[in-house]
């Protein structure tokens, strides 16, 4: 009993750092052994400036977070990275949203500069683990998470375990084809889900409709086509702007198509929608579920629950921290 108390005290005195590397923003936070977010910060990821600029941001932000936490021991660092990751080597195999990072041994590079154990995971898988740990899917054994951000990521948990597939690439739901001859995707295919239900996809559809007379209020508010953002589209849609509402209806239709494929294939209990665009889920999630029910088999379709993330923008941080806390998930 005395030994148990010592171990319990040691657990309470340690924390881990979770890093969520996005195509737009870099989110870093300190997380306790019980899943409490102790401190978090967010900065631009500087992806367009190249790997060196992003790596510098990562290192500097980790250091900032570390200095904010007093009285606890840093036990490890987990990182969620967009793309296909070799879990054994910590190498980025392919990443549509990190141009020039293919083949990059990010784990080895950072291990040379950091004194703590480092664990690398696909960002959507990390988010999924976070939601399963202390989020919307806590206690659920069969579920899928979709992250709608710069791109679209996906993670699958079956019978309580992360499903990775033969080569660790399972769960790439963002690359389900929803338009066979649709918009080219960074992965090399056409018509992928992420080209239509991501923040960048929403902005692209808005720009393509610039000549529609109904687009006037959006263009005026954004100062022209180059200033269009997903946040502004959502703001106007909530005010009843017909052009922006129609953009979200289109997004919802494509999301529903993708979710129906997932439901018919996996017969899961829950789909959790996260990522930055989930902040506007009130504008599309109900419509997407309706579309899913039209296209999925009735029994699995009506059995699945579709919810917004409980952890929100912090899901990737908490999930990456969970990986570090558990010493990596296999």
Describe it.
The protein is α/β, with parallel strands linked by helices and 330 residues long. 39% of the residues lie in helices and 21% in strands. It has helices at residues 2-12, 51-68, 106-111, 123-134, 194-197, 199-208, 216-222, 230-238, 242-266, 285-295, 298-303, 315-325, and strands at 14-21, 25-32, 37-44, 73-81, 84-86, 91-94, 118-122, 143-148, 152-158, 161-162, 270-274, 305-308. The strands form three sheets. Strands 3-2-1-4-7 form a five-stranded mixed sheet. The chain has a five-stranded mixed sheet with strand order 10-9-8-11-12. A two-stranded antiparallel ribbon has the order 5-6. Helix 4 crosses helix 12 and helix 8 (230-238) crosses helix 9 (242-266). The chain is globular and about 55 Å long. The model is unreliable at 1-7 (pLDDT under 50).
Order of helices and strands: HEEEHEEEHEHEEEHHHHHEHHEH
Q: How would you sum up the major sheet?
A: 5 strands, mixed
The count of β-strands is 12
Low-pLDDT residue spans: 1-7
Helix content: 25-40%
Shape: globular
Question: What is the distance, rounded to the nearest whole angstrom, between the alpha carbons of the first and last residues?
Answer: 31 Å
DSSP summary: helix tally: 12
Approximately what portion of the residues adopt beta-strand conformation? 15-25%
Helix vs. strand class: alpha/beta
Spatial arrangement of strands, main beta sheet: 3-2-1-4-7
Oligomer: single chain
The overall pLDDT, averaged over residues, is 92
Radius of gyration: 20 Å
């Amino acid at each position: 009993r005395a030994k148990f108390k010592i171990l319990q005290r040691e657990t309470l005195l340690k924390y881990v750092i979770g890093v969520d590397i996005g195509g737009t923003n870099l989110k870093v936070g300190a997380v306790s052994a019980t899943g409490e977010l102790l401190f978090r910060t967010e900065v631009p990821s500087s992806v367009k400036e190249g790997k060196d600029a992003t790596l510098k941001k990562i290192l500097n932000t980790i250091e900032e977070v570390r200095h904010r936490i007093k009285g606890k021991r840093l036990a490890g660092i987990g990182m969620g990275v967009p793309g296909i990751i070799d879990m054994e080597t910590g190498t980025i195999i392919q990443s549509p949203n990190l141009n020039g990072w293919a083949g990059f041994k990010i784990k080895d590079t950072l291990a040379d500069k950091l004194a703590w154990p480092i664990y690398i995971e696909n960002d959507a898988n990390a988010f999924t683990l976070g939601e399963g740990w202390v989020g919307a899917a806590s206690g659920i054994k069969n579920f899928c998470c979709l992250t709608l951000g710069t791109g679209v990521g996906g993670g699958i948990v079956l019978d309580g375990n992360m499903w990775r597939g033969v080569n660790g690439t399972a769960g790439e739901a963002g690359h389900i084809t929803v338009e066979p001859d649709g918009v080219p995707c960074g992965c090399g295919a056409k018509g992928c889900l992420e080209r239509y239900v991501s923040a960048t996809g929403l902005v692209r559809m808005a720009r393509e409709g610039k000549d529609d007379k109904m687009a006037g209020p959006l263009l005026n508010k954004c100062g022209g086509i180059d200033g269009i953002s997903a946040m502004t589209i959502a703001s106007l849609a909530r005010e009843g702007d017909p052009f922006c509402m129609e953009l979200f209806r289109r997004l919802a239709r494509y999301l529903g198509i993708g979710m129906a494929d997932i439901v018919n294939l996996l017969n899961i209990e829950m789909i959790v929608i996260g990522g930055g665009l989930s902040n506007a889920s009130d504008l599309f999630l109900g419509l997407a579920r309706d579309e899913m029910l039209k296209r999925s088999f009735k029994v699995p379709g009506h059995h699945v629950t579709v919810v917004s993330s409980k952890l929100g923008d912090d899901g990737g941080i908490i999930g990456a921290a969970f990986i570090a806390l558990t010493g990596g998930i296999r």
